[in-house]
């Protein structure tokens, strides 16, 4: 009876037959010396008393070899296959091997076989009857008195003979272990003894053991202090459960009267019965009340059978330990610590003293550990204490699983070198051989090494109270410092200068800290504080030492330069400038100070304050004040022209240089500001308002200046801000004469008060210079270049620089600028146009009008580019020209005219374009052919090219055909593969475009299919159909129909189409459609002979073997398991093999694709099993942890793992063959065995 469970007391009850053993003689020899063994008067050999067993065996074998065969009798016995060794592949046994009973021959006993061996005769090994005289087998089970034996042999005539024997067992003799067997031949074969065959076959059966009686009777159970008698060996599990629960007491009831306690009956036969007691959920190791030796005992009471016995054993006794039992758990108790040697998980026996004594006096003690690092990657560890060694080789120091190499040691000190350690607390071990590991002298436990940042200097050691200074902190172990505090304020660490021996940070402002501030280095959860390394010094504070100005206009906007001492150390700090109550915008920070833009303020005096990191700077030898003021002192000139244009100069203080902040008005009319300075404004007066002939000689107007919406009207009394318009000061122009020169306009002007004037036409102006003509006439002249003028009509304006605009009374008051053509190129060309015409001249374009070119006749010139002196355009024939034969002998003369801004040009030279037949290229023939991915075009004709001139071929007005060869009569070019449809071809040279004389300029390309292949496909579709030809890629689309079903297009070029055929049967027509036009191409066929077939599937490890038909070894087959490809496909005869992909558990169809015939017929299914083959890190504590599982069929993202019913959280690194999960904490419960449950979720 077996009682497994959390804390179980398994009891096993065994009953079975005894066994017959070979007689054994034991020889006992005492004393020392020699002795001999004799047998049948054979010569004796002397044997010493201390001889080995092998020496004694050798002596006995020599003694027996004299008169007998030393080969054992078993050597003549044929041990039948299936009993003395494992079952082979070509034999089948129907029994099950019994391991609990030793066999009488061979290695196993067979229980209740219906057949001893079942195999084909050809697969059985033949044995010589003269060598093997007996056949031995052990039979255990139901007794039968009939044995059927088949014998086959070859007689002397070399004929095969078979005999079937029926043998009766007779065990009624006096010897219960032996019996006679009577065997008779079958009716078909006659009697067994056939003398004519010279063969004698006899069967002798020796019964080695009498059949055992069945197991029966009763036994008793000791449950705590209660004895339960009369328990039948045939009791059921339910009856045993109730029996135990009704016989509990106060000590055993908490364990047996619980819902998690169950009893199962694992085995019941004629020779044994086994019960198992299990606590399914009770955690932990149960107390001794359930101990098999003190509480639950079983003993035989009235058992029947062959040597019946009852026993119990513990299967699992709680806890989480499921590995081998350690040797110290099996050791006997001893007052001293025992040394146990374990080999293959088996503890060795101690025949002597295996005690070990721990001695306090022999234990090395560590009192202090000091760590220091150099500037490189090395560190030194100094260990102080007692019980060390002066021999370096006897010491071993390790920190963080790294060795610290000992360089010096004595009884109280050890110095070692190692790699630099990270900041933190690290455990240190010191091994002193032969005494062992050292302990902490103060705690008696582990030794720990603290690695802290060490600060030795701060450079510079002093800074101003404002902070912002960049300081360097020098020391060791600084690489892990993540925070620096000056007092309680952080000093931001600059990451670009960090190292293990130096870090830099920007000192914070002093605030409320002491002058001698404490500096703290923080690394993780550790901190180190030092004093007396840094001090705030008020004498180092920066100060305002200069201001670039002390006056500003009300509008502000001026630049103020503030000089600050020692400011180079604070550039980039939090700097602010305040003027009055307004913040000034900082434009730049320099080593010497700041540049700021002044804000707009009302008139008055204001303080200038500079604030750095919250601290306001003091001033040194400068008064930080600025005066906001705006005043007008004078206006010059006082008087000017009624027509305006007088340049006023306004002098004063506090003006702005920003035009958007300053405006000047005169009687609600704007005086146009031309220039600004802080103390001067220049503006042009507007014409006097309501001007008429009746206006008096003087018209005074008030001048208003507005700055930032503040009107400046309060000026000194002695200064007037009134301007007078005076008729006497208005210049008068009486005569204007114009002379147009080759490239300029010459103006001659006469009048009054026009000395020092400029003449202006549009945006162009020139200074008038005094000229003296005949009869002492006085006039003024100036020249305007036509290259700077646009065509148009301009009024004549004369401006006197002091007085303003003149009043023009001359007859000529406007001047017209006309486009002028000086030449054209070329002057002759092709009748069909196509030449690039270049027009040169003056004033040929305007800013808003690029110009238009007109030609006589039915021709036009398409503008290509233009500027003031050149226009380029393409000559094009009209759309209604007569055929070439009608106008080939005609010469055309075309006048060229340019129109700009509605003004037509004048011609200063030859402006005529001549078109002649002898200048016209002619095309007589155009042919094309497709060559791979390109189309070659050949053009034949006359005057197609000139020496040194490369013609240009255009297709649909695009220069896409690259010329590869040309002469006067032939031009060849190459372009991308031509699409089907009509294409317009043209060719041009320096004479212009060619005329098509005896052929059309329209090239028509029709789709052409030269061949398609293959023509036989699988009925399942999927085959790859390929068309080869020309002009196959349409502009709007290309499609293929097979019968009434589309062929799925894979790719299309101008010379090839590839598509996937649909399923079908029989013969189907092919139809190609390009750009909406259909073409009948031919037919293809679907045949079963062209359809590959997958017949059967065998999975062997990581290899799929598929039996196929209609497949050749040279075929290209792709195999898919589900949607994934099977790798490494090979075909041998009718077998296909490949390596399946690693897939999540499930069933997947197995498909095959023959290239190019199509899909194979297949009903095969591949089953991917969900299996766990290995678990790593499956031993652990109650806190859980990461468990790694290996196997097959995992589904990443859809696999769940449970351990003892609790979910194990799957981590994100899962694949189909491995995954990791985070085992949960067991919350105080112990488990006797961990069960994993892995499943894929949909």
TrEMBL record:
Keywords associated with the record: Signal
Domain IPT/TIG, residue spans: 452-537, 623-726, 818-916, 1006-1098
InterPro entries in the record: Fibrocystin, Ig-like_fold, Ig_E-set, IPT_dom
Presence of the UniProt keyword NAD in the record: no
Highest taxon of source: Eukaryota
Family matches, as PANTHER family: FIBROCYSTIN, POLYCYSTIC KIDNEY AND HEPATIC DISEASE 1 (AUTOSOMAL RECESSIVE)-LIKE 1
Protein name: IPT/TIG domain-containing protein
Lineage: Eukaryota, Metazoa, Chordata, Craniata, Vertebrata
């Amino acid at each position: 009876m077996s009682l497994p469970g959390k804390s179980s007391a398994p009891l096993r009850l065994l009953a079975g037959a005894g066994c017959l053993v070979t007689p054994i003689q034991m020889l006992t020899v005492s004393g020392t010396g020699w002795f001999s063994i004799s047998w049948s008067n054979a010569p004796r050999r002397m044997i010493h008393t201390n001889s080995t067993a092998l020496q004694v065996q050798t002596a006995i074998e020599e003694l027996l070899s004299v008169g007998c065969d030393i080969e054992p009798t078993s050597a003549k016995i044929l041990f039948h296959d299936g009993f003395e060794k494992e079952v082979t592949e070509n034999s089948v046994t129907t029994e099950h091997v019994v391991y609990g009973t030793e066999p009488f021959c061979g290695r196993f006993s067979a229980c209740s076989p219906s057949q001893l061996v079942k195999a084909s005769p050809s697969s059985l090994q033949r044995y010589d009857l003269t060598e093997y005289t007996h056949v031995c087998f052990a039979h255990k089970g139901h007794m039968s008195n009939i044995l059927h034996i088949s014998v086959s042999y070859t007689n002397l005539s070399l004929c095969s003979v078979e005999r079937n024997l029926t043998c009766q067992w007779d065990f009624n003799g006096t010897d219960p272990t032996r019996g006679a067997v009577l065997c008779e031949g079958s009716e078909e074969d006659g009697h067994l003894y056939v003398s004519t065959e010279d063969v004698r076959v006899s069967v002798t059966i020796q019964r080695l053991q009498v059949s055992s009686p069945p197991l029966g009777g009763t036994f008793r159970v000791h449950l705590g202090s209660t004895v339960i008698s009369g328990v039948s060996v045939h009791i059921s599990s339910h009856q045993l459960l109730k029996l135990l629960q009704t016989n509990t007491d106060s000590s055993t009831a908490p364990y047996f009267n619980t819902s998690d306690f169950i009893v199962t009956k694992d085995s019941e036969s004629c020779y044994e019965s086994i019960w198992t007691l299990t606590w399914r959920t009770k955690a932990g190791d149960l107390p001794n009340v359930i101990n098999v030796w003190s509480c639950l005992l079983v003993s035989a009471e009235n058992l029947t059978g062959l040597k019946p016995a009852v026993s119990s054993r513990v299967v699992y006794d709680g806890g989480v330990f499921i590995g081998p039992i350690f040797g110290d758990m099996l050791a006997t108790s001893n007052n001293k610590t025992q040394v146990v040697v374990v080999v293959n998980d088996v503890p060795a026996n101690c025949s002597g003293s295996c005690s070990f004594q721990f001695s306090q006096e022999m234990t090395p003690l560590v009192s202090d550990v000091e760590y220091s690092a150099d500037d490189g990657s090395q560190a030194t560890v100094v260990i102080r204490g007692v019980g060390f060694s002066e021999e370096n080789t006897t010491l071993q120091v390790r920190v963080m699983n790294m060795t610290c190499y000992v360089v010096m040691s004595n009884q109280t000190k050890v110095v070692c070198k190692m790699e630099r350690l990270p900041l933190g607390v690290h455990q240190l071990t010191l091994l002193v051989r032969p005494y062992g590991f050292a302990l902490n002298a103060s705690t008696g436990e582990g030794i720990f090494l603290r690695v802290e940042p060490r600060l030795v200097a701060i450079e510079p050691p002093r800074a101003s109270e404002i902070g912002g200074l960049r300081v360097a902190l020098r020391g060791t172990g600084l690489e892990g410092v993540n925070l620096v505090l000056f007092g309680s304020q952080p000093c931001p660490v600059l990451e670009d200068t960090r190292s293990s021996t130096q870090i830099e940070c920007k000192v914070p402002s002093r605030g409320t800290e002491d002058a001698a501030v404490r500096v703290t280095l923080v690394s993780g959860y550790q901190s180190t504080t030092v004093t007396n390394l840094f001090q705030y010094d008020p004498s180092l504070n920066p100060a305002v030492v200069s201001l670039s100005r002390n006056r500003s206009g009300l509008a502000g906007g001026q630049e103020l330069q503030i000089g600050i001492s020692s400011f180079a150390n604070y550039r980039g700090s939090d700097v602010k400038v305040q003027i009055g109550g307004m913040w000034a915008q900082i434009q730049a920070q320099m080593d010497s100070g700041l540049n700021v833009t002044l804000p707009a303020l009302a008139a008055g005096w204001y303080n200038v304050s500079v604030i750095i990191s919250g601290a306001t700077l003091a001033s040194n030898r400068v008064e930080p004040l600025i005066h906001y003021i705006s005043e007008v002192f004078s206006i010059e000139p006082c008087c000017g022209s009624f027509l305006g244009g007088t340049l006023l100069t306004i002098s004063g203080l506090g003006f702005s240089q920003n035009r958007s902040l300053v405006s000047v008005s005169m009687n609600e009319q704007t005086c146009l500001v031309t220039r600004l300075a802080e103390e001067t404004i220049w503006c042009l007066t507007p014409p006097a308002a309501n001007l008429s002939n009746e206006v008096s000689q003087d018209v005074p107007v008030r001048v208003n200046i507005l700055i930032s919406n503040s009107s400046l009207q309060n000026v000194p009394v002695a200064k007037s801000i009134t301007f007078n318009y005076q008729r006497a000061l208005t210049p008068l122009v009486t005569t204007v004469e114009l002379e147009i020169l080759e490239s300029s306009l010459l103006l001659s002007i006469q009048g009054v008060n026009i000395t020092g004037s400029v003449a202006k036409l549009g945006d162009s102006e020139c200074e008038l210079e005094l000229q003296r003509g005949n009869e002492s006439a006085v006039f003024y002249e100036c020249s305007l270049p036509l290259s700077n003028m646009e065509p148009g009509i301009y009024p004549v304006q004369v401006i006197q620089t002091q007085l303003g605009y003149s009043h023009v009374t001359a007859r000529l008051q406007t001047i017209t600028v006309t486009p002028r053509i000086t030449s054209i190129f070329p002057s002759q060309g092709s009748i069909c146009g196509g030449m690039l015409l270049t027009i040169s001249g003056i004033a040929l374009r305007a800013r808003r009008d690029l110009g238009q070119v007109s030609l006589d006749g039915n021709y036009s010139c398409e503008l290509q580019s233009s500027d003031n002196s050149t226009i380029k355009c393409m000559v094009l024939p009209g759309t209604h020209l007569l055929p070439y034969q009608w106008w080939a002998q005609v010469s055309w003369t075309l006048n060229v005219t340019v129109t700009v801004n509605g003004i037509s040009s004048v011609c200063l030279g030859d402006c005529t374009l001549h078109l002649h037949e002898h200048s016209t290229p002619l095309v007589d023939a155009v042919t094309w052919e497709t060559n791979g991915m390109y189309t070659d075009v050949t053009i034949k004709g006359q005057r197609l090219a000139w020496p040194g001139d490369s013609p240009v071929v255009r297709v649909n007005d695009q220069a896409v055909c690259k010329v590869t060869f040309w002469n006067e009569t032939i031009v060849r070019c190459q372009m991308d593969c031509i699409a089907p449809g009509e294409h317009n071809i043209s060719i041009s040279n320096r004479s212009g475009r060619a005329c098509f004389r005896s052929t059309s300029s329209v090239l028509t390309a029709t789709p052409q299919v030269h061949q398609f292949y293959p023509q036989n496909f699988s009925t399942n579709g999927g085959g790859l159909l390929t068309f080869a030809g020309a002009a196959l890629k349409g502009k709007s689309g290309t499609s293929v129909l097979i019968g009434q079903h589309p062929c799925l297009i894979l790719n299309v070029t101008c010379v090839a189409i590839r598509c996937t055929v649909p399923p079908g049967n029989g013969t189907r027509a092919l139809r190609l459609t390009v750009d909406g036009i259909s073409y009948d191409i031919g037919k293809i066929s679907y045949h079963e002979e062209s359809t590959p077939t997958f017949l059967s599937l065998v999975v062997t490890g990581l290899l799929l073997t598929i039996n196929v038909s209609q497949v050749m070894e040279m075929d290209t087959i792709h195999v898919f398991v589900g949607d994934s490809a099977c790798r490494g496909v090979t075909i041998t005869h009718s077998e296909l093999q490949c390596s399946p992909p690693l897939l999540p558990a499930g069933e997947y169809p197995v498909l095959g694709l023959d290239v190019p015939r199509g899909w194979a017929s297949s009903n095969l299914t591949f089953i991917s099993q969900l299996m766990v083959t290995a678990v790593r890190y499956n031993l652990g504590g109650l806190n859980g942890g990461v468990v790694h599982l290996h196997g097959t069929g995992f589904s990443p993202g859809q696999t769940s793992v449970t351990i003892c019913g609790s979910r194990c959280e799957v981590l994100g690194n899962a694949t189909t063959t491995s995954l990791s999960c985070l085992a949960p904490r067991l919350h105080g419960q112990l488990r006797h065995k961990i069960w994993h449950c892995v499943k894929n979720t949909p």
